[in-house]
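Before a colleague's protein record goes any further, I have to sign it off. What it holds is a sequence and that sequence's fold in token form. My question to you is simply how this chain folds and whether the tokens agree. Thanks in advance; the entry in question is below:
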Amino acid sequence: MTIEATGPRSGGLLHILGTGFGIAVGVGMMIGSGILRSPSLIAASVPSEFWIVALWTLGAVHAALGANVFAELATALPQAGGSYVYARRALGDIGGLIVGWSNWISTLAGIAAASVSFANFLALVWPAAYDNAAIVAVAMQLVVFAANISGLREGRLLQIATSLIKTLMLGVFVVAAVIVGMRVSQPQLLHAVAPGIGVMALIGAYQMVRGAYAGWDAPVYFSEENTDPSRSIPRALFSGLVLTAVLYVGVNVALVAALGVAGTGRSVLPFTTVLMRFGGSLPSILFAFGAMMTVASCANANIMSAPRVLFAMSRDRLLPRALERVNKGGSPVLAFVLSAIFSLALAATGEFGTVFGLIGTLNSLAGMLVGIGFFVLRFREPDLERPFRAWFYPVLPALAVVIDAVLLVLFLGVDVKGAYFAIGLSALCVPFALIARAARRADN
């Protein structure tokens, strides 16, 4: 039976967004802690230029397969809330809840990871921040949350400005790193064969790559606030992804050219190491400020997205109605407050690895369910208007589902904590859905 979303009772969402914002929020959510912190971790576990480039390229192709599916779903169902909307429409309350909670927690983890990284980068210019990382992370979140609660226009302006700055910054870094590599030695060639690298190391590395690409679907969270979603959403999805992939591969190639694989793996912050070689301490300090801008932009994109998941779940009566309330500025204010409470608690731990490690697992779980829902809707609602139809149906959409399913199994095998969390989250959604269903019946 088809489950229709109830209409918005608040009527407060603004319709002012376009392709530019979609690209900015996609780039903003992807480019953050992942690309700044994971290159050294990946180089340490997978010491091969070939595999490093291959993994980052594979991440882009994998995300593009998902974008192909999401572009159709977002234009057919242009509602706030992202993939939760599609999962619930196709799979009912339980499937919707699993995807909704997975996306919400994933965005909170992104906020927390970005704020912790902000504190770590601040410590490069203000050492006292190192011993007060949790306090700094919480303070950064409070500032960004306050700006977004004011209204959609404020959040939009902040996102576009910060995404532009950090994109230019990474582009400049690639050039600087290549120059350093040319000064030190001849450019290093990619090895065709990488002996001695285990399968588990590749899986663990790809989990980090998957986490770094998390957020490519950010434009769909704002479909309902877009002036022309049937055209803007597909353009924003693919344009943002291509731009980010070029930067990601370029950054990793540049790091290897400048430091070598071993040097990249040994450096906790290889970006600063490269810039110190390029021009002494001043470029490194400037990069620290740029890195803080990068992770703050990522946090802003996640902060804008998380409340819209709660808003959509509230509109479908899976959460209290209060979370559907929108202020004059177009922000679901109580959904922002609830998201802030949980993300602040997560950031207070001060642990980057713990909060970031959940993202790849949760995104694979949600991606697999949405992919299944895509086929359910194609079969059950063939007459649903679809302004964008997924390319090479059913082969590419089926490939996306298979990849997410395989990766989920592999990720759960290397991430025991993530496995327990995903299983527990899914199990909790069953009684939660039954309680919500009973509450809806009582309201009627």
